[in-house]
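User: Could you check the structure of this?
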Amino acid sequence: MREGYEGTGPGAITPDGCAVELYARLPAGEEPGVVAAAVPPGAHILELGSGAGRVTRPLLERGFRVTAVDESAGMLEKVAALDGGVRTVLSPIEHLDLDERFPVVMLASFLVHTGDAAVRRGMLRACRRHVTDHGCVLIQREGADYHTNAPRERVDPAGHTVRILSAEPVGDGVNEVRAEYVFPDAVWTQTFRARPLTPEQFEEALAEAGLKIDRCLTDDGTWVRAVPVG
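Assistant: Sure, the predicted C-alpha cells are below.
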C-alpha cells in the first residue's frame, strides 16, 4: 500500500486502497450522460483511471470507443471482460505515453485531487499529451464542501450506503479521507489522501499542463470541459 492509502473488505485491494470487487459493483450514476452530452457521438475516449469499468460499460453501450487505462491489473481484467471491444492499457496515468492522441480524454473519480502534487502534474500532462489539438479533456473535480461536510452519508438508488467518515489534515494542504461502502452482504472501507483545490488553484494546475477550462458541464461545477491552450 502507498503511504496514507488503505482498504478493507472482500477481494483484492489495489495499492491506492480501492477494492476491485467494490468498484465492480458501483453504479455509473450521472457520469455517462455528462460525457455523452459534451463530446461527439461515437468519439474515441481515452479513459484515464477506468477502475473496473463502472463508466466504461455505459460508454460502450452508448456507442463510444474506449481505451481504458488503469494501474491495476485486477481492475483491467474486469474491463476486458466487457462487451464492446474495449482496449485496455496497464499503466500509471502519470507515466502513460501511447504515442497517439485522442479527441476525448477523461480524468474522472476526483483523480485531479490526488494528494501528491507531482502525480497530479503528471496526470494533467498525460491528459495534454494524449488529446488532439482540437479535442477536449473532461475532468471530474470535488464539490466545494467535499472535505468540510463530514461525516455524511447517502443511500444510493441501487441500495447501498456511502459514508464519508472523516477528512483530516495531514500537512501540506492534504487531507486523509476515510470512506465506507455498506452493501447488504459486504462492507468495504477506503482511506486515501486528497488535496482540496480552490477554483484558482485548479485553473493554475490546468494552465501549467497547457490546458484551460472551456466550460462547466454540471450545475455544481464538478465536471468541466478543458481544451488545449494555443
